[in-house]
Design goal:
Layout lengths: L21 H7 L2 H9 L3 H12 L5 H16 L1 H16 L13 H29 L6 H13 L2 H13 L7 E6 L5 E7 L8 H6 L15 H56 L7 E3 L6 E6 L2 H7 L6 E4 L5 E6 L5 H16 L8 E5 L4 E5 L11 H15 L5 E5 L7 H17 L3 E5 L3 H9 L5 E8 L5 E7 L8 H15 L1
Parallel strand pairs: 3-7, 6-10, 6-11, 8-9, 9-10
Antiparallel strand pairs: 1-2, 4-5, 4-7, 11-12
Length: 502
């Protein structure tokens, strides 16, 4: 049995190799906040959510396939949580049994496999019962296929057949084995036989004719005889024990995959409930094909900031379709970095099949997401900050492919204005020639002004708004780069207010 709730044609693999830049993305986009909310202190949910978020889908059909399944889960959260609980119970079934441990003792393997399989059958019956009751509420192709598989594979005939086999394998009436004798009367070619199930009436047993047979008895104190008989029994049931053990493994693997794939959707449900409690909107994004320059959204906000502050966050509206460079300047603490983080988070969430933190969102699928953020001073650095920035940029370039999305935040500002502007200008032009898409937050006026003077149709310039009294709106609007970032506003706020307070 297959689950197919994450991919249309394959299983979701845990412990798959994650992107080489996962640590940078984790730090720059503050992904820990997002993942902790999805996990709700469940380590398994955290692990699955992390791997799903970092394992991007790179085609529109795959994103929409998972997105439709998520819509089903959001519409039926109690049913999905019930399925998840059943899958967890199934994985707990082997605990307390010797199953799979005493691999050299067929009798122990068989007995424990019978016990575990009996528990698993009960759980499979529960899953079918859930499907019989609730499958009509699920409309996605993935869940419809899942419920159809449950109905076809887990029929009444199937459960009755398994029940009878498990009953027979308990060998309550003893074990019937055939064998051949070799030199020295050593047994070989042991074959487990099915015992006759019909019971004779007492008159038939009394007067009936039976085939000639020989028997022997072992006394209670004959340890050697008991050991020899036990070895013969193990030889006879060995194949049956291994077959049932493998069947049990197969059923357990189904439950393991069901739990793993449902864990992602449980994480999404947990996240949506927290955001709904805050009062923030959610939208199912419209992904466009790789290479199409789309970025259009309403009320896009930083989901991690909202989760941290536990209150609604001011979002942004923007239509930057057909643009490859979005350059962002403006007042200090005006919301530029927050906006940049919201872009990266929304892209990751869209490309793993999730909803996004916005009222509406449309964006092109990127071949990779990269961040180049200014780092705090590190005393362990063996070279200067500019060398460190250029080294990270070189590493990013080594991994780039056309139509990647790169987020720059105050990059190349570790040197003087002229040198930093020239470095940034050359890197941006080279990346645009290689068909990359860039969001670039900067305070380098020479760099921003030069691009604005020579701007092309593929560029758009945004500026963090500042009111006349110095108040920040924390929203971005199209605007020409200015020479000042209004740092004096911060000076007056910090020092003048402290003097008044003093």
């Amino acid at each position: 049995m297959k689950v197919f709730l994450m991919y249309r044609d394959r299983d979701f693999e845990l412990k798959k190799e994650l992107p080489w830049n996962q640590e940078a993305l984790f730090q720059d986009l503050e992904l820990g906040t997002l993942l902790k909310t999805m996990a709700q202190d469940d380590e398994f949910l955290y692990q699955v959510s992390k791997e799903a978020v970092f394992t991007s889908l790179n085609d529109r059909e795959s994103i929409l396939y998972r997105q439709e399944i998520l819509k089903d889960c959001m519409a039926n959260p109690d049913v999905v949580r019930q399925l998840y609980t059943l899958s967890v119970q199934a994985q707990e079934a082997p605990k307390g049994h010797y199953w799979g441990t005493f691999v050299h003792f067929p009798n122990a393997i068989l007995d424990s496999s019978v016990e575990v399989m009996s528990v698993l059958m009960d759980i499979l019956k529960s899953i079918r019962a859930v499907g019989d009751t609730h499958s009509g509420a699920f409309v996605s192709g993935g869940f419809q296929r899942f419920w159809e598989m449950i109905r076809e594979e887990l029929s009444d005939d199937y459960f009755e057949t398994v029940r009878q086999h498990l009953k027979d394998l308990k060998f309550n009436g003893g074990v019937l084995i055939s064998a051949e004798l070799t030199e020295g009367n050593k047994g070989t070619d042991y074959v487990l036989r099915k015992s006759a199930q019909t019971k004779q009436r007492w008159l038939e047993r009394l007067f009936g004719t039976n085939a000639p047979a020989f028997s022997f008895y072992i006394t209670d104190r004959d340890e050697s005889g008991m050991r020899a008989l036990s070895e013969i029994r193990d030889e006879g049931i060995n194949l049956a024990a291994n077959a049932l053990s493998q069947s049990t493994e197969h059923v357990l693997s189904f439950f393991e995959m069901l739990r793993t794939e449902l864990a992602f959707y449980i994480g999404c449900i947990n996240l949506s409930e927290q955001l709904q409690h805050i009062g923030e909107p959610l939208a199912y994004p419209d992904p466009t094909d790789t290479g199409e320059r789309y970025h259009c959204f309403q009320n896009l906000y930083d989901v991690c900031l909202a989760l941290t502050k536990k209150e609604s966050i001011i979002g942004n509206n923007l239509n930057c379709n057909d643009k490859s460079l979005i350059l962002i300047t403006g007042a200090n603490q005006g919301g530029k970095s927050t906006f940049l983080r919201s872009i990266g988070l929304a892209q990751l969430m869209m490309q793993c099949g999730m909803f996004v933190p916005a009222e509406s969102f449309q964006a092109g699928i990127c071949t990779g997401l990269y961040t180049h953020y200014r780092r705090e001073e590190d005393s362990t650095l063996e070279s200067g900050k500019l060398d460190e920035e250029l080294g990270r940029m070189s590493e990013i370039v080594d991994h780039l492919s056309p139509n990647a999305l790169i987020l720059f935040n105050e990059s190349f500002a570790a040197t003087n204005e002229r040198e930093g502007s020239e470095i940034a200008r050359q890197i941006v032009r080279a990346l645009l020639e290689r068909q990359m898409k860039l969001f670039f937050v900067t305070h380098l006026y020479e760099f921003a002004h030069d691009l604005f003077v020579h701007k092309t149709s593929q560029m758009i310039f945004l500026r963090a708004e500042r009111q006349d009294d110095g108040q920040r709106t924390f929203q971005l609007a199209e605007g020409e780069p200015l020479k000042t970032s209004f740092g004096e506003d911060l000076y007056e706020k910090i020092f003048c207010e402290s003097k008044q307070g003093g």
